[in-house]
Design goal:
This protein has about 350 residues and is α/β, with parallel strands linked by helices. The protein has helices at about 5-20, 30-45, 60-65, 80-90, 120-130, 155, 185-195, 195-200, 205-220, 230-250, 270-280, 310-330, 340-345; strands spanning about 25-30, 50-55, 70-75, 105-110, 135-140, 165-170, 180-185, 260-270, 290, 300-305. The radius of gyration is 21 Å and the shape is globular.
Length: about 350
């Protein structure tokens, strides 16, 4: 990188990240998207097979395509689908020649940002071991958010981080900084340092960004001498459960796992996307609305991302506005929970 005077702080950040993730070694990159799209091609190539979840983020899809590997897509979080593809890959090998695949790499995310679902990691790891594949886990939305220590989905399930070959994540969401990282065995990071486009051709991170990452990671780990980090992770978990429960009680249809701080709320009709965004904005609440092509055309949705900084009052204010707009636009599609909620109101 160009800021060689700052290398010691960079190294400190990477060592801290490795310690936080529970892996031997970690490496940081200036951009989250490029962490995926430029590193997957360094890990697999021709004669390799990538098995990718159908809802994987564009950066993973691009990385897989750029690698020149064969790509097969399995149904979202569906372990039967994944196992069938693994078995076929082992039995049949490569097309035409039937030589065994050089490598099989499974690509998954920790939390899927459009669905709010959490990867079925224990099962993925069991399959990976059984079929001797490699696992690449993208924790953009789960790092710093899931698990008792905020260490992501491995922490959430209480698994061994060493069972994930490549742990990837970003510093943009929970750490309030920029860039991404890859963690794993020392051989992995040393290989990437010399072979990856994002390492060889990109400028290194700016010093203030590095400082922000070090400070926020120490906070989450409790190394700043306070329980602030742990309290926030706990607060986030409580906020998430509360917000999801209240939306369901009001009669909205929401997707994803109960513990996921990414909460998609279904609007369905494309025409309601703009209306929902505008009506919420009129009432001083900005929401992210998602439609085609990020989701199927009839599966338009609003996406709420819960934060530890949200107080109960803020959540209640947002919920009452969401409820009001929900009635106005008739998007309380759920049938079963409404009655209970209305009785409480009466």
């Amino acid at each position: 990188g160009d800021s060689s005077c700052n290398l010691d702080r960079h190294e400190e950040m990477e060592e801290l990240a490795a310690k936080f993730l529970g892996v031997e070694s970690a490496m940081a990159f200036g951009m989250g998207f490029a962490t995926n799209s430029m590193n997957i091609p360094a890990l697999t190539g021709k004669g390799c097979l990538i098995l990718s979840d159908e809802l994987n983020h564009a950066s993973l899809v691009l990385g897989a395509r750029l690698s020149g590997s064969t790509i097969r897509v399995f149904k979202h979080n569906n372990m039967q689908s994944l196992e069938k593809m693994l078995r076929d890959a082992i039995v049949h090998g490569q097309p035409r020649t039937h030589r065994p695949w050089k490598k099989i790499l499974i690509l998954v995310e920790g939390i899927y940002s459009m669905e709010g679902s959490i990867v079925r990691l224990p099962e993925v790891i069991a399959l990976k071991k059984r079929y001797r594949a490699y696992l690449y886990l993208d924790e953009a939305h789960s790092i710093g958010a899931l698990g008792p220590g905020g260490r992501g989905v491995v922490d959430y399930f209480g698994l061994d981080p060493r069972d994930v070959d490549v742990m990837m994540g970003t510093f943009t969401k929970s750490f309030g900084a920029a860039g991404g990282y890859i963690g794993g065995r020392r051989e992995l990071t040393e290989y990437l340092r010399s072979h990856s486009h994002s390492a060889v051709y990109a400028a290194s991170m700016s010093p203030p960004v590095v400082e922000q990452i070090i400070a926020s990671m120490k906070c989450i780990m409790g190394e700043d001498g306070t329980t602030l980090g742990r309290d926030r992770v706990q607060q986030l978990a409580e906020n998430t459960l509360y917000f999801r429960r209240r939306l369901t009680e009001m009669g909205f249809i929401i997707y994803g796992n109960n513990d996921s701080p990414v909460v998609p709320m279904m609007l369905y009709m494309p025409a309601k996307i703009g209306a929902f965004g505008r009506e919420m904005l009129k009432r001083n609440i900005g929401v992210v609305v998602v439609g085609f092509p990020a989701t199927p055309i009839i599966e338009s949705r609003a996406r709420f991302c819960i934060s530890a900084a949200h107080t109960k009052d803020m959540l209640d204010t947002a919920l009452s506005v969401i409820s009001e707009v929900g009635d106005l636009l008739q998007i309380k599609y759920s049938r079963h929970k409404r009655l209970i909620y209305d009785q409480i109101q009466d």
